[in-house]
Task: structure prediction
Amino acid sequence: MDGTTLGPGGAGLNLPGLEDLRAAMRERAVVAEARVVLADRLGCHEDEALQHLIWLARDLGTELEETAALLVTEDAANTQPQTAVNGSPRLTVGDVDEAIRHIRSRADDPTDPAGPAGIADRAEEVEALLGGLTDEDERADQERLAAAPNDPAAQAVLDSALGSSSHLIPVRADDGHVVDFLHRAFGEAAEDIFGRPPEELLGRRMLRIDPGALLNGLFPEYVKVLETGEPFACGPIDYSTVHHGTSRSARLSIRCVQVPTGICLTWRHHDDDDRVRRRLDRSERLASIGFGEWDLAADETVWSPQMLANYGRGPSDEPVGADDFPKIIAPEDLPLFEQAMHVLFSRREPVQVEYRIRTPGGSDRHLWLNAEPMLDRAGRLTGISAITQDVTRRRSIEGALAETRRDLLRLQGESARERQVALTLRRAILPPDQVLAGAPGLSAAVRSIPAENPARIGGDWYVTRVLPSGRSLLAIGDASGHGLAATADMARMRHGLLGLAYTGECSGRLLGWLNDMTDGLGPATTGTAVVAHFDPETRQLTWSSAGHPPPILVRDGRAERLAAAGDPDPLLGAFPGMEYATNATPLRDGDVVVLYTDGLVERRGADLDAQIDKLAGMVEGHGDNLHRMLDDVLQRMGHDRFADDTTLFAFRVGG
Result:
């Protein structure tokens, strides 16, 4: 199908297949409406009614949509057999009713394939049944309206109706039975379910413009009122109808009375009332708020369902009586409740009070009450209007939060004390004024900054020492974990290395021993380290790494990482008995070697290699002042002082 263009002059939005989409939507609407109608007639669930509708379509020999349209057609009012052009009987609503009765009769045997005799053979007449009125029919309707006399009784009903109202006159067949009604007049407040103005409906047949009277079984009742004079009333009911393939449903209360020229209908829409009630019920349920009133004169109490639920009562239970409140209120809260009642009844002032109760089920609840006196014009107390809210969950949460706050305050104090101990221990272990004091051929600087978060103080450590052989020991490391435990592990690793260093062994052998010692501290203890020796005679740097970020060498203003021979060695404490490789790097006067911990280069979401390259770029081009270089690097790298320790250590060859 060609696309449909919307907009002035044919310009605008092009919607391919719009008519197909509309047709499909109309078919779905009709099927949905037919399912509702059939469910109402059969007294079953809508899902079951859909299955029955499918069976009915099979019995009729028609498509599902055609059968659904037949159920909700505007011509459904005409239940008398008609004669087709070829003389064969036409398919009528009576046939459909026959099929529905058949469905009821076979409810206990849904597999029965039989259908009402003759319906399948006449299925092609469905379309003819949906045809419109002839010109002759319309002229006859206008004559009926013109011939109808004035009806003061009908006008009185229309004028006095508080809601929608209509005056209808009957349309009779040749044999005298009523086949429809004509709208002769509407009340001022008339409201159509499809929103059509009364002027559009005047003079038209009721079942033509709204077949809902037939679909909902009301049309026979209207005819009965016309013929017997006995008034009819129903509602609120779920009223469903259809117009041009669009279905609508509403909650209605309907009244029908006889007048001299026909009948008068009055109807009231409850949809707004139902929506307000549903919203109120939902609001009460979600907020656990209940409403209640106590009529003192009649001694009657009315509670909403949520009010009953707040007191542990069911919908069918009676409200709590005045004499029963002292029995369910906690003894500790009873004086406060009685004082509030005294203010309410004696001083006739609104009160608010919170108290605990014990429900019939044995659970304890916290209720908040807001009660107001209802007074007559003379100021006499006639009743009490009250609202209660179940605040048990709120009080439970508040109690849990208060307990959590107390725990956090306790942990905060413990963390502060632990941080102070850790800082004191760090200062004792890592004195900043003893960095390579007296080392021949070297000058050094260090920055070791503990984390500001007490829980994140880590195990960063460094060692600088001139050994008896004249070599300088240069080491940096990081014990895993945070807090006082990590600080203690850091002290053991550092002191252990210092003791081992006096054996004169190479850096790889020292790391092997340090690895075995770390493994002995516990299964959860690990660490990383770089251990180096500088020989002032040969200007050779020998070094080994255990899972630590690589040293950076700055020579002639260019920085590069020092690469270890072979694969990187694992961290300390991971594999006992490991042998660590020793690497040799010759140095020259003016060379600078930078050692650092992961706190300087690790960032969440950032690539570690890129961060190390960034650090290497920052240490290039600095002069002889190592302290200024370290301060500049710390500022530009933007290390997170809150998250982890940061240690940065640099030494220059040549002093």
